[in-house]
Amino acid sequence: MMRLPPFRYFAPRTAAEAARILADHGPEAMAVAGGTDLYPNMKRRQFTPTVLVGLRGLAGAAEIHANGDLRLGALATLTDVAESPAVSLRWPAVARSAGLVSSPPLRNSGTIGGNLCVDTRCNYYNQSEFWRASIGYCMKKDGDICLVAPGSKVCWALSSSDTAPVMIALGAEVTLVGTDGERRIPVSALYGPDGIAYLTKKPEEILTAIHVPDRSGWSMTYRKLRRRGSIDFPILGVAAAARLGPGRVVEEARIVLGAVHTSPVAAPDAEAFLRGKALDAETIEMAAGIAYQPAKPVDNADLSYAWRKRMARIEVARALRELAGLPTGDLPPVV
Fold first, then answer.
1. Above 90 in pLDDT, residue 41?
2. Which of 19, 52, 65, 70 is the most exposed place for a label (fewest CB within 10 A)?
3. pLDDT tens, 6-31?
């Protein structure tokens, strides 16, 4: 049985207080919301904080407001987001991505803010401490090389958030509270350059809210590829959104891929290609052939990386066909 290491627990009532506690204890402290990713990582000794700062008691941090724009308190559970009638009606891709995270019990505890900040993943990293010790560890924890790419100077652990690609595609922003006050940045600016420094926010900053613009008139979707229909992290995520004019002509489009790099990957060339074109079958296939090119999966996740690369093209095409109201070619569910 893997057990949690010992730690002290603080339960602040405000984000500013939480940020101060984190700053006072430095690298020995970590924030915890639902704990669905942090606690298993602590059991595997991937994280070994001596201080945990619980965020569940932050006043108002779990509220959902959909008046014009959408404001999600970062402590709103994934279940609350997925099952919110207002979110499902006006931002269906947000609801779908939240509803595809893990399993119902974990969505009942896991938070939307926690999923945006969830740790990167790699087959050489997400193992027990005993297993990692037997192979000499990796640079993400206790080692000095990337075992999936030994010549690399950076960690290639993959972005594992389902909600991040959607938030980036919709132009969402987050509010961060630190010891110096509050700031607001695009979700796209939240992610760092490699699998270790995967977040750009300061360690003591608390993510308190997500702000999603009103996307009335837009079509949007999120598609997730994984071995099983539940539990698993994505081995590919595709967020797509478009504003279509008469004749299904694309006025604006956004395509963002998840789980294909250390952070979500936008496809600006495909977005530019789509603008001004009718979203028909031929255009979709050509756009998918452009959009999948930035995907850089490596051999550190479930299933073959070459297959995952090919599936990026297929799933982008399926996502765009959803936006156009065309059949996606999905297999029917097994009953």
1. yes
2. 65
3. 999 999 999 999 999 999 999 999 99
Q: Which long-range contacts (CB under 8 A, 24 or more apart) does 228-233 make?
A: 230/102, 230/103, 231/102, 231/103, 232/302, 233/102, 233/121, 233/160, 233/259
Beta carbons of 104 and 79 less than 8 angstroms apart = yes
Instruction: Report how far residue 219's alpha carbon sits from residue 7's, in angstroms, rounded to the nearest whole number.
Output: 46
CB 101 within 8 A of CB 162: yes
Give residue 127's Cα distance to chain centre: 21
Helices (H), 186-325: 268-274, 281-291, 305-324
Name the residue type at position 200.
T
Residue where the block lists tokens 């003591």: 204
Residues 295 and 305: beta-carbon distance below 8 Å: no
Give the Cα separation of 123 and 127 in Å (integer): 7
Indicate the SS3 state at residue 53: strand
Dihedral sign of CA atoms 68, 70, 71, 76 in order: positive
- For residue 149, give Cα distances in angstroms to 255, 305, 332: 27, 13, 38
Residues 34 and 28: their CA atoms lie apart, in Å, by 19
> How do residues 229-274 score in pLDDT, each as one tens digit?
999 999 999 999 999 999 999 999 999 999 999 999 999 999 999 9
| C-alpha triplet 175, 177, 181: angle, nearest 5° | 115
**Per the structure block, which two tokens stand in for 274?**
């789509």
Residue 1: its pLDDT value, please?
Answer: 77
pTM above 0.70, yes or no: yes
Residues 6+ apart with CB under 8 A from 144: none
| Each residue's pLDDT tens digit, 59-78 | 999 999 999 999 999 999 99
